[in-house]
TrEMBL record:
InterPro entries: DUF34/NIF3, DUF34/NIF3_bac, DUF34/NIF3_sf, N-reg_PII/ATP_PRibTrfase_C. This is GTP cyclohydrolase 1 type 2 homolog. One of its GO terms (cellular component) is cytoplasm. A divalent metal cation binds at H65, H66, D104, H309, E313. Belongs to the GTP cyclohydrolase I type 2/NIF3 family. GO terms for molecular function: metal ion binding. Keywords: Metal-binding. It comes from Candidatus Termititenax persephonae. It holds the Pfam family DUF34_NIF3.
Amino acid sequence: MKLQTVIQALNRIAPPQYACAWDTQIGLQIGDKNAEIKKILVALDITSALVALAAKQRADLIVAHHALFFRPLESIDLHSPLGKNIAKLIKNDIAVFIAHTNLDAAPDGVNWTLARQYGLTPETCEVLEPTYREQFYKYVVFVPAEAVEAVHGAIAVAGGGHIGKYSDCTFRGAGTGTFRPLAGTRPHIGRQGRLEKTPELRVETIIPVEKISDLLNAVRAKHPYEEIAYDLYPLKNSGRVYGLGLLGQPAPNSKYARYKKIAVASGSGGSLVQRAWDKGAKLLITGEAGYHDQLLAAELGLELKICGHRETEEIVVPILRQKLRAEFPALTVV
Ligand SMILES: [Zn+2]
């Protein structure tokens, strides 16, 4: 399996566009996209112990939550712990891929997992600090009847026509297309210089903004016309919001049900104290909070439950492993 293919799956699991704007150290930190991957190690942090384990177990890729290096490197000092790790990873052909705040925000990511642990239903929770708002376009394409199923297939594969738990959502209307092929054309239907009137279907669907170029390429491969007539309309439909921290009402059987609303924020969630309070939380469960954040919580009357940075994040590691195993049954994921 090429690393590039694994990266595509990781980008579906934790879309990079969900990351915080400051979090630029995500994605491939070390590696060759054409490298062959057989074994993947999933971890929270890339410590020297983990690098040693990866080398011993002949792993080809480490997928971690926290970056190997958080800032651009000015030098690689082979006496420093970081320099030693980088050297060992490269010498052993071990690639490094990071999913950080994009994994915090993703469905089934860190915050969703933490929310479920405390009796919340993440699908219905409000996001405390949005990092990404889904945006949609309406895509309309005019297709001769004989190509409509092929074009429909291309739309579906490219990610068009998804509404909630439904796929393949399109609308087709029949009509007459007109066109006059000019000099230099090689029309699929009609002749140069002559006005053509031909039955066509207007196929319309909805597409998330980040999938538009995939959709256009996929349709181009299946549509028989030399020039494809299509329209893209920006929509005002409000899509899903992704981000850091979740707020909601715990299930009635949860031991936290006595709080009307609770908030969870994986890792360092201290900065979300005010937002959690403003949105009506009576309890914020997080990994760590600084002195002043704790002071603010006490002043507001917001109860803080501090569970440890690692403890609120390592819960996602087995879930990430499961997802990679499901995507790539032929790979070893540990
Ligand atoms: Zn963290």
